Amino acid sequence: MQIYKTFLKMLIRNMPSGMLYLGIFISIAIVVANNNQNNDISSFTSSRADVAVIDNDNTELSEALKDYIGSCHNIVNISDDKEKWTDELFYRTVDYILVINKGFEDGVTGRSYADKLESYSAPDSNTSYIVQSQAESYMQNVCACLDSGYSMEESCKKAADIAQIQVNVTLSGADKNEDVSDAMPAVNTISYFFTFFPYVILCLLINTLGSTLIVWNKPELKARTAVSGTSFAARNAGIVGAMFTFSCIIIMIFTVVCVVMYKDDFFTKATLYFGLNALCYMLVSLSVTFLIAQLSKKLSALSIWSNIIGLSTSFLCGVFVTRDLLPDKVVAFSKCLPTYWYINVTEELKYYNGSLSSNSWISIGIQLLFAAAIMVISLVVIKNRQRKQEMA
Fold it and tell me: What is the pTM of this model?
């Protein structure tokens, strides 16, 4: 019992070094939560730019093109003086200037109309791509109609009608009146909290529990505890008990933070699975920390270990960067890491539909196997070290 109390006190004393990572985690979680609440893609609306059209052709086609652009954007009147256009663009009086030169309509038959169009925009403006794309699409439709035998007037009208065709897109879960049974489940907002959990828990445990284990493994301290009346099994049981007690304290802190941030979504069945997955990864982190403590002799090396392991696994396994953006070879390699299997579960729970698939249960089991395997490696390292000391 004395070993348990002493080791737990040492762990709690090292807590401030791990609170930095907890603070980073909370900050990231708040930013991500606010970003996902404010940036709702279902509220997208197309914007209208201020466009000036200088028509030097004055033909039926040039007038039709001007009218079409006017239906999509705001037509602004500016001077014909080309030297003043730079100032108009610089002061954002106009976003885009389209010049229709003479011979534009005549060039349609020979498909050389593009040479009769000039455009001007500010270097840092994205509007030019939108207006230019719309103008090119309109002209392609006009040419297609002319090739089909329509007159110029009919072609311009049909091209305008084609451009007005729209497809109504409904986002799953965006409409509260939508039939839920036919829609894909909405994204579980609490999933963003648990996505960043692996990085934080690894760094936190390595810098708190790891430093305590390194101090405890010092020869003079081990010799002092060895001569006490406590047996070897009791000493190890006290250390393991203190480690699990400390882990429970960390889990409680994370739970409180989660309840405060996601109180509306916390009390659900999905959260139980999130918690189970996090608990399994906690065991993985404990075993990794235990192994690092056996391999490291200096406290200064722990920060290096935490950054290397925490950052590398987070980037490779989809914590910081989604797997869709990662190369296939990187994703294939990440299967050798327990964080990959943790993210497997969180990705499914983002769209939780009332049950957990067998793949997720397999992923949870693989995490437990990783924890057991890493712990066995740690015990082998300890056994070899003791054998060397006895031989010396």
Answer: 0.61
